[in-house]
Amino acid sequence: MKKHILFDNDGVLVDTEQWYFKANQEILKKELNLTLELEVYLKIMARGGTAWEIAFKQGIPTHIVDACRFKRDELYQHYLQTEEIAIPDVKDILNDLSKDYSMGIVTTSRRVDFHLIHANRGIVDFMDFTLCVEEYTHAKPHPEPYLKGLEKLQAKKEETFVVEDSQRGLSAAYDAGIDCVIVHNSFTATHDFSKAQYFIQSLHELKTLF
């Protein structure tokens, strides 16, 4: 019987992934005259890499890339505060799920971005904890983030499931030995989800899945 849920954040609870891609794409073009194609970015994302790989391949030094990262972060935060990133009915769904499950968020987002995303959104009110990228050593697709999530919940693997939308996140859950539910996201639709145990079109289906 399932008692616990570990949620990914971006693309699952909030619609932010397209804006992170756009911020990377725009800064690479503006500052370095490099074109980041969506197909390339999705392949990099699937294995847990970064968009800056295309800069390093061109021999651009680290200090220039770091300066561009800072500008990317500023632009991304601008999008977080000005664009619509809500996924419909998330709060109602979480309120319903909270009656039967303990829950946490395990994300590769930076804590500063996470705070911007969730300011006055009410989503974290239903969570026992949140884990951001600064709070573990190895990011997804490494299993550490989800193993740490289990520790936070004091949960057994067989009593827990992960909700993800990316191949990187699925790999992390799979290698951690936790069942994974993939929720449809058109942004990551080309990823390989063959290792997932369950597939849903929206979070509405979680209540009746187990």
From TrEMBL:
Q: In which pathway does it act?
A: Organic acid metabolism; glycolate biosynthesis; glycolate from 2-phosphoglycolate: step 1/1
**Which EC main class describes this enzyme?**
hydrolase
Q: Which Pfam families match?
A: HAD_2
Entry-linked Gene3D superfamilies: HAD superfamily/HAD-like, Putative phosphatase, domain 2
Annotated signal sequence range: none
Keyword terms, alphabetized: Hydrolase
Q: Name one GO cellular component term.
A: cytosol
Instruction: Name the Enzyme Commission number(s) assigned to this protein.
Output: 3.1.3.18
User: Which is an annotated GO molecular function term of this record?
Assistant: phosphoglycolate phosphatase activity
InterPro entries, sorted: HAD-like_hydrolase_sf, HAD-like_sf, HAD-SF_hydro_IA, HAD_2, HAD_sf, PGP-like_dom2
Q: In its keyword annotation, does this UniProt entry include Nucleotide-binding? A: no
Catalyzed chemical reaction(s): 2-phosphoglycolate + H2O = glycolate + phosphate
Can you cite a GO biological process for this protein? Answer: DNA repair
Q: Does the keyword Hydrolase apply?
A: yes
| Family per record | Belongs to the HAD-like hydrolase superfamily. CbbY/CbbZ/Gph/YieH family.
Q: Which PANTHER family match?
A: PHOSPHOGLYCOLATE PHOSPHATASE
What is the recorded name of this protein? phosphoglycolate phosphatase
Q: What is the lineage of its organism?
A: Bacteria, Pseudomonadati, Campylobacterota, Epsilonproteobacteria, Campylobacterales
